[in-house]
Amino acid sequence: MTHQRKPVVFAVAARTNLCVLLACCACTLSVHADENTITRPVGEDGGPTPIYVAMGLLDVDEIDGAAQSFTVNLYLNIRWFDPRLKHSGPGHHVLPLHEVWHPQLLFVNQQKIWPTFPEVVHVKPDGEVEYRQRVWGPFSQPLEVHDFPFDTQDFEIRLASAGETADDITYQADPENQSGLAERFSLPDWRVLSWELDFTLYKPMGSREGIASFALIFHARRYASHYVVKVIVPLIFIVAMSWIVFWVDPTESGTQIGVATTAMLTLIAYRFMVGGHIPIVPYLTRMDIFILGSTILVFTALAQAVITSLMAHREKVVLAKKVDVWCRFIFPTMFVLILIFSFFCEHPSVFREYV
C-alpha cells in the first residue's frame, strides 16, 4: 500500500513545485512591469515632466484663530502625459493610483483630512493621465493677528511632491480645467476677498534644494462687526460703569467702593467669557491692548474711590470732591485715547514682537 502511494505523492509534489515556480516567475515579471510603469515619464527633450493643476475651493467651514487652523472642502484635478500608458480605447481606462507613476502628492499643512473619491486615475487613449480627488478637513495656518479683530489673512493649502525637485517635474496651471472658488461659503465671520495659484518650490526646514509644489492661496478679511457689537461695545459700558463713583459723594465710601469693585469684578468675568474668542499668541493684538487699557482704567477708578474715601474720613471732603470733578473729565479722555491707540494707531515694535 505504501509503495503504491509514493508515485502519487511525488507527482502531486512535483506539480505543486511547478506551480510555485510559475507563480514566482509571474510575480517577477509583474514587478518588472510595474517598475517600468511607475518610473517618471520623461518630458520633452528629456526635461522635467509637466503636470497641469486645477484646484477648486468648494467651501470654507471654519477659521479658528485661537487654534491657528482652518477647515476647507477642496477639489483637486491634476493631469500629465505618460506615453507608456497609451491604449487603443475606446474611452478611458481606470487604473489604481499605485499601479502608475504619479507625483506622490502630500498636503504640507494638513492636520487630518478625509479623501472622498477612490484613489484611481483615468487614462485616455493618447496616454493622458488624470487624477481627481476631493478632500475635507482642517489645515494648520500660522496667523499674524496683530490687527485682530480688524485683520486680513492669507490662507495657504500647499501640496508638495515627495522627493521630486524642479528638475524632475514642473507644476503649472491647467489651461483646460479652471481653478477658483465657490460663489458662497458657509463661513459666518470671514469674507474671502481673492485667490491665487502659487507654484514656488517648497523648502522644508530651511533646505537649499526645493521640492516641487503648488498651493491655492486665498485672502480673507475678518468681519469685525461681530467683535464690535459683542466685545468692544459691552466693554465700553463696563468701563463707563466704573465712572459712577465720580458722581457719588465721597462721604459715601461704601457706595463708591462697592460700585468700583462691581465694575472690576464684572470686567474680570467678562474677560474670562471672551477669552476663547481671542487668539492665544505671545504678543499683544489690538484687542488685547484695548482690554488691558480698559482693565487698568477700571482698577484706577477703584483706587481713586478708595483714596477719596480716605480723604473724606480725614475731613478733606472739599478736596475729595474736587478730585471727583477732575476725574469726570480725565477718565473719559483717557479712555478715548486708549480706544484710538488700540484700533487706529500704528503700534511700536514693543507690541508687535514676540516676548
Largest sheet: 8 strands, mixed
What is the gyration radius calculated from CA atoms?
34 Å
Supply the CATH superfamily name of the largest domain: Neurotransmitter-gated ion-channel ligand-binding domain
Q: How far is the first residue's CA from the last residue's CA?
A: 92 Å
Q: What does the average pLDDT come to?
A: 83
Oligomer: single chain
Helix-and-strand structural type: alpha+beta
Strand content: 25-35%
Number of helices: 6
- CATH class descriptor of the largest domain: Mainly Beta
CATH topology of the largest domain: Acetylcholine Binding Protein, Chain: A
Shape category = rod-shaped
Helix content: 25-40%
- What's the number of domains? 3
Descriptive account of the structure:
The protein is an alpha+beta fold. It has 3 domains: about 1-40; about 45-220, Acetylcholine Binding Protein, Chain: A (Distorted Sandwich); about 225-350, Neurotransmitter-gated ion-channel transmembrane domain (Methane Monooxygenase Hydroxylase, Chain G, domain 1), CATH 1.20.58. Helices cover about 40% and strands about 25% of the residues. It is built from 6 helices and 12 strands. The strands form 2 sheets. Strands 1, 2, 3, 5, 6, 7, 9 and 10 form an 8-stranded mixed β-sheet that branches. β6 and β7 form a beta hairpin. It is rod-shaped and about 105 Å long. The N and C termini lie far apart (about 90 Å).
